Amino acid sequence: MLPVAILAGGLAKRLRPITETIPKALVDVAGRPFIEWQLDYLHQQGVRHVVLCLGYLGEQIEELIGDGRRFGLRVDYSHDGDRLLGTGGALRKALPMLGDAFFVFYGDSYLPIGFVDVEACFRAQGQPALMTVLKNGDRWDRSNVLFNEGRLIEYNKHAPSGDMAYIDYGLGVLSDDVLLGYPEGQAFDLAEVYHRLSLDGRLAGYEVFERFYEIGSHEGLKETEEYLIRGIEK
């Protein structure tokens, strides 16, 4: 199983005042810090190596999680340093820990999806990157992916067109070479990388049919907590 990079360095402004003194990954969700839910879930998926890309108050996450052994994982840490590097810059800095290909998702996401199947699709497609996509119709956020007959035609987070009915589900797979061309220490957005890859025909797509959950907003936090509690009660 490929290693997993979790992007958990943002300022989490939409969750304030909760995140004034703790990072988003440590927000309590159904009685546990959210990062613990994520790590348990990754272990269940067969993942064994996780790299946490940290920024805002990241030392609190490292202090709680440690080396990851209590989750059955090896957990390494990549800190942005004095200034936030953005999602792309954080991954670029973490490359030496990640190898030549890896999963990537966000520190505020809980994704009901089979990682084994996504990795198999990535290897079968032969592209340097893969994005999971969900037919969204602007339901959970503004749709930003043009996906047709199994082919990802364009991803555009910042200027989506009206014919885009799908959304980035939140789990991707990247080869290291798509980031090696960016200078280390430079801040940039992973969305820019995905957009460029899609226009070059180098971004594979994998369609998902179950919605994602996230704690990036107070509404999302409530929905995610309800979802996880339902899972506990089953």
From TrEMBL:
One annotated GO molecular function is: transferase activity
Q: Where is the Nucleotidyl transferase domain?
A: 6-132
Q: Gene3D superfamilies, alphabetically? A: Spore Coat Polysaccharide Biosynthesis Protein SpsA, Chain A
The record's annotation in SUPFAM superfamilies points to:
Nucleotide-diphospho-sugar transferases
- Keyword Repressor assigned to the entry: answer is no
Q: Which CDD domains match?
A: NTP_transferase_WcbM_like
Q: What InterPro entries does the entry give?
A: Mannose-1P_guanyltransferase, NTP_transferase_dom, Nucleotide-diphossugar_trans
Per UniProt, which keywords does this protein have?
Transferase
Q: Does the keyword Manganese apply?
A: no
Q: What is this protein called?
A: Nucleotidyltransferase-like protein
Species this protein is from: Methylobacter tundripaludum
